[in-house]
Every structure is written in C-alpha cells, then in structure tokens.
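Sequence of PhnA domain-containing protein (Maribacter aquimaris).
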Amino acid sequence: MGLLEDLQARSGAKCEICGATENLKIYEVPPVSTGGVDGSLLGCETCLSQIEDPDAVDPNHWRCLNDSMWSEHPPVQVVAWRMLSRLKAEGWPQDLLDMMYLDDELLAWAKATGEGQDESEKIIHRDVNGVILENGDSVVLIKDLKVKGSSMVAKQGTAVRRISLDRENAEYIEGKVGPQQIVIITKYVKKI
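Predicted 3D structure, token representation.
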C-alpha cells in the first residue's frame, strides 16, 4: 500500500483534524518530516490552507481540535498543538492547551516551527536588505563565498532555491549550491 492508502486506512478516509471527507490530501508535518505515516497526516483542503496561511484562519473551524487533540497519532497531536497555540488569544484554545500533554520529543517537534512563541521571542531571518526570509524562499548570493570543508567557491549571483532556516540562529540559512547542501550567512544573500 502507498502512503495515501495507509493514511486513509488510519483515518477512515476522513480529515484527521476536522473529520471532513472531501478534498483530502497528504500533509507532511514540518519542519523536517520523517515522511511516511509517522510524519504525515490526512487533511482536508480547508484545514491545510489555514495551517499554511495564518492570516486565513477561521477560529470557529478549529473547535474540532477539542476532539482531534486526543488523537493517538503524533503528527495529528503536533498540528493540534500548533493550531491551539496560534489561536490561544481566542481564550478557549488556551483551556485545551492546558489539558494537552505532549512528551518532550513531540513538544520539540511541535515547537520547531516557532508556533506558540510570542513575536518578540521568534528568531527572524533577514537578508542583507532587511527583508524577512521564510522557509522555501529563493535567494541570490551577493558575494563569492568559500565553502568551508571543500574547495568549492559559491559565486556571486548564484541562486539558492528553497532555503531552510536555522531555528536557533537568525544569521544562518541552508540551501543547495550545485549538488552540495551548505550553510549560508544571511548578510551575504538577497531575497529574489
């Protein structure tokens, strides 16, 4: 069986968050999903679009977390914790968060995207011009960079696509230059 079939069997062909039965898709839970059944969930278009776009969140839709937060499946628990954290200013999500328990490993996974932190606590990555960088952005190098541990030089003007952010240091991002994955300092890149 493929991943979609495994997730449909696990969920009973329903969204594992709200229970909807239409427009179901696989969602790999970031930041670095293990993939497969242990790192993914089956979600409906409504849930997934609101997970991806914090500005489009309808708090009433997420009252379904009252049930799904008790799921035995880690990816569902992680997404429930993140959405409750995002909505905690509404009042009722804070009550649910207070009842929810995640072991240390799951809590670290849930917090890995910065959800649940106040804006002042979040690490913000900015390029040389002060533009905020996000996971998946594309940047261009503004100077030649010697790649430590290799004889390679990443040339000025090289595009680095689909960067990932270092969640512990605002000056570091990662991306592929040619076949090699490298760490780049943000003051040497400009967002495309």
